[in-house]
Every structure is written in C-alpha cells, then in structure tokens.
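Running this now, will post back.
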Amino acid sequence: MSERLMFTEHAQSRMAQRRLSVTDVEYVVDHGFRYYTAGVLHCFLGRHSIPFKDQSIKDFSRLEGTTVILESNTKEVVITVYRNRTAFKNIRRKSKYNLKVSIATAYPLLYR
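Update: finished.
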C-alpha cells in the first residue's frame, strides 16, 4: 500500500471492483483537478488534466473520468473511488458546505 495515502475498507473494495491500483489512485490525486465541495475533496481526472506526455500511454488514458474522494482535513484518507466521465458537472453542483466540525461538538448531548 501507499505510504502517503490511507484507504478505507470501502475505498479498497471499490478499487478492486473498478480495477484500480494504488498507483492509479495516486496518479489521479497528483494530476486531477481538485474541488472542495460537500465537506470532502474531490480529485477528478479529466482529459485535460492528463499531461501531454502521458496521453499516449494507455495506462494513464484509461483513467480519464476517475474521481477520488479524500477526507478534507488531512487530504490523505481515500474515502471512495468511482469512474464517470461527466462527473465533474455533478461535482460542481453539490452544496458547498464544509463539515470540518466533528459530530461530538455539533451534538454534545449525544456524547456524554
């Protein structure tokens, strides 16, 4: 596994279902467009995000449309991974709220 990124169990199972390796996810995080929305960080790898020298390499061009969702606080925990070439349009529509407040501070009566 990667030393830089940590993966949830959900992310690991989604990566296996979508045939994505740790290197693929790191490539998307490094080169993808980053967008903060809905309390998380979305890293979307579109056609224009892939460097010109990598566009002819089949391993990288197949990653077009891949989205990696990271925890917004540390930017090191991968929550989930999915593929959708038109996902960026939907990501931009999401609410812009930020959930950096923990549940314990938002609902203190529940956590006594």
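Strands lie at 6-7, 33-37, 40-45, 66-71, 77-83. More later if anyone needs it.
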